[in-house]
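Fold description:
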Amino acid sequence: MGIRKKLMAALCALVVGPPMTVVASSPAQAVGPALLPVTVTNSTGRGDAVHLYVIGIQLSSNRLGYVNQGGTFIPWSGGQLPPSPAPDASIPGPGNGGSTTIRFPRGFSGRVYFSLGEKLKFFLTPDGLVQPAPWAGGDANRDILFDWSEFTYNDAGLWLNSSQVDMFAVPHAVTVTGANGVTKRTGDVVDNGRNAIIDGIRSQAGWANTVHTRADGTVLRVLAPGKAAGAGLLSASYLDSYIAWAWNAYTTKTLTVVPFANQPNTRYFGRTSGGVMTFTNSAGQVVASFNRPSSASVWGCDGDLPAPNDLVVGPISRTLCAALNRGTLGTVDTQPSTNAGEFYRNNPTNHYARVIHANMSDGKAYAFAFDDVGAFESLVHDGDPRAAGLILSPFGAVGGGPGNPGAAVPVLSNWNNKCIDVPNSAFVDRAQLQMWGCNGTNAQKWTFTGNAVQSQNNKCMDVDGGATGNGAVVQLYTCNGTGAQQFTLNAAGDLVNLQANRCVDIKDWNGGDGAKLQLWDCAGTANQKWRKG
């Protein structure tokens, strides 16, 4: 399990923000470059100017500062009370459809901010940096459209995650490419995912005020429940009734916490008495106790749920916090639960986390501080990285949907980031579809129109002969509206043939160029997970 630290502790006492991923591990034998290239791609569909910031801490010196586009670290200096404006640390970002390369110096941990349309405003005190906190009514950045990713790059590799711990504003994916050439990617929303998340949360009773809209009609962000409740925009006691029920469930039964997936024999046993849940180890010794937490403690994974970086109290606390946010405490008596089908079934529930996860291509997100429990976080890691990426995702529908009808887009495998391809760009009947490195050609452009997935020359994705069994060949054929050509890309990332109720599958788990596509029973496996590019 990753060790999560507050940026407040990692950066300075004045930093306002969510936890970031810091993983304690031994340095890898191979070490990434001194300056790691990070490509920022703008796929938002918006015309706003983009401004980038790389802000954090130099690990060797423990100095706070920022990094310029070339990767040079520059420490902050000065600062006053009241806080004074910080020097302009912005890097010009890419226009829509473009990309900009920045660099992470090895031995640095922090955030990459990206703002659209207006530069962010940072401030300094004698003790450090004051970062944007748009959940506060008087914050200078409240009406700016912005977001951030978090990272650590050291001798043990790169950890890079998209974060929704405080808010959801600018959807973005993160990638890392290792020395072996394999690229890992996560954080993609489904088609029209930003709108689906905003509308899905706003429609829940009591949650409408968590959405902040600028005077010009631009929806800027949805605040996480802890931030919204702190600002008086969500009931401060929203989750209390569920917490009380779940906590009291263990007055009559035992909760078993198995906090380390690789240590199944390390177990702790919890029982509740008088509002206090006490944990013992396998020898019967008391090792931790927790007061029944408030909604605020659950939203923040702090307060009554302190999580020190030890090997007992912290891991138990993180597990409790994840179970309470996901609504599994009280019903699943061995934690952590790793069955996402059991999450968010309680009432009241964490609709913020529920809706965000439901609209991610791979189901992963950092919707609360310890969403990494059970590996449900939107994080990429490589111990020997050679490149990384941030992709600012489309704000609306990409292909064949409202706001962008008829747009042709690539369809990528979440497993290996290759594209569905028409061999040799030969748009002929019965051309068996394959996987190929994404190259932007028309052989990899698909238009989603109704339930048809259309290529060039009036050809459609098709199942040979209308077959419905496992192993049926997925091919190209003249569009005819039959069941063999009825496909849907669902929120879970499954590309399903509706007639067969089977998924498009990369045959034999072949990760190379030329791998063929087939239908197979939907199993939720990585070779059946897809997204629009």
Summary: The chain has three domains: 7-22+37-223+355-392, 240-346, 408-532. Helices lie at 7-10, 193-202, 225-230, 240-248, 295-300, 313-326, 351-358. The mean pLDDT is 90.
